[in-house]
Amino acid sequence: MDSKQEKLINSYTTHFNKNFNLAPLQAKIMAYILIMGKKSGVTFEDVLTYTQASKSSVSTTLNSLMDRNSITYHHKPHDRKKYFTPNKLSSLLERTIRIIQSELLLLVDMIDYYEGIEENETDTKQINNIRIYKNHLEGIEVSVRETLQKLE
């Protein structure tokens, strides 16, 4: 591994840890697979060597990343090893859409709730702010869907 790859892995490790709430080992393995596994994948042994973590920790972490739909694996002909690769960008976008849709449903309920207890100008302003935020999320959802279509 060259220094450029190592720097990129470290940057993505920090990114995944802070922005996706991945545990440190999850973030490190996800970043490693993203950078090193893009072409043909990385093996369990590759991950074990890179992280210097226990077999149990690496196995548990790989399974958790697969459960999150962040990584996948394949087998090569005549080889029983699993080769781990990052999942397609489309899966990240699909997850983003699911999160946005969930948030939009909650916002509808929140608007209904606040409209039921609206008593003054401050409440009216709060409802309007929630509507502005809801419209913003709807625009993001449209944009993400358009990007997803372009990736297909």
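Above is the first protein from milestone M3; the second protein from the same milestone is given next.
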Amino acid sequence: MKINQETYDRIVKKLQRKLQPLDVEHIMVVDLNSNGEPEHFITLAKGKENACELKMYKFDWHLLDYKPNGVILVHNHPKNLGFPSENDNDLTISASKVCKRHKVKLMDHIIILKDYDFIFSYAQNEHYAKLGGLWRSKGK
């Protein structure tokens, strides 16, 4: 499964509108169909100003209930904190393991900030955390 650039940009823009105004961290999942088109945008966890924990059993249940072909994991940093934390990296790795168990492709993990997005795998490579990610400016 691939996501074309236009669809990917449309997904990111929608997520920016949803997550940028929030003052606490939220973790969301975007479910994708077999054509790489988004079907659901669902909040899985709400946290504090600069922390949010996703219990992996909730993600597991989500995959069982919705049976997507692929997912994009997304969360926001309301305080515009820069680089992904160790927890962000751990979340990517844990989500990847859950997806693999369900034979669902984890297409990406995106962190939405005010001026930039951190994209773990802009090219949709399978080695998310190992790549170190990519910063992408919003319209600059």
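Note on the second protein: The chain is about 35% helix and 30% strand.
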